[in-house]
Amino acid sequence: MQRIAYLGPAGTFTEAAVRTLVDPDAVELVPAATPPAAMELVRQGRVDAACVPIESSVEGPVPTTIDALATGTRLQIVAEAVLPVRFSVLVRPGTTAVRTVHTHPHAAAQVQQWLAAELGGAVLTLTSSTAAAAEDVAAGRADAAVSTALVGERLGLVALAVDVADVRDAETRFVLLTTPCAPPEPTGHDRTSVVLQLANTPGALVTAMAELALRGIDLTRIESRPTRTGLGTYRFFLDCTGHVSDPLVAEALAALHRRCEDVRFLGSWPAASPDAGTVPPDPAGSRGWVAGLGGGRG
Ligand SMILES: O=C(O)C(=O)Cc1ccccc1
Which ipTM did the prediction report? Predict the structure, then answer.
């Protein structure tokens, strides 16, 4: 039976995400304390895959996930799930005053106005997941947790408020990672991701991005993260539409490989949200035109 690690403990949004990506009855789900810990289990061969949150529509990237993707032995994204997130504020039955609140940083970012308005004086502590925060409440280590209704029911907590959100319709993207493998077959709605290490020269980033732009490849995400070797040195995470088997995406990756100090391929996989379209193999028939010149046509 395949073993799949996920950001636990049981009841996290990540568990809900992994359940949409694999048949939960056909795999063993293995909770891990943090995204890097889940990813390390894959690198050590102790699980077959890991599911981790990578970005949210409100707070942007999950830094621990993307840093662990850029360093250590390479892992590859093979699938993604985009989930709407709804928060409940959970307390133990009979709680009358809330002085401490625990939650995950991405949940905190999505309910900060609500917390300030409703629980203004409470001290916020960040936890490794929303379910871990709820466990803290159940164990008496916190008065309230920003978590999910489901975890509240499981732990015998009650909801002080449900459907709490500063921004309506927030979504989080989760990815399924394995050791390097042949990417899943192209579907026509795929996403490709790379991490670039660029020379510290004027125009290096613009030139790299131009390799996509000039081929009509849509850049769907760009992040920079410090390399931790000194101020002013960054890695760039680029997501684009298309699949490594699309000729234009392959050409762009080859050009990036020529231009960058290092390119780490993070995978090509079916996109869950509609921002990823197709990259036509020969827009305007230009390849056909060049091929024809060799035969005296055109
Ligand atoms: O803590 C969780 O339940 C997670 O899966 C991480 C997370 C936290 C907040 C929003 C989306 C994902």
Answer: 0.98
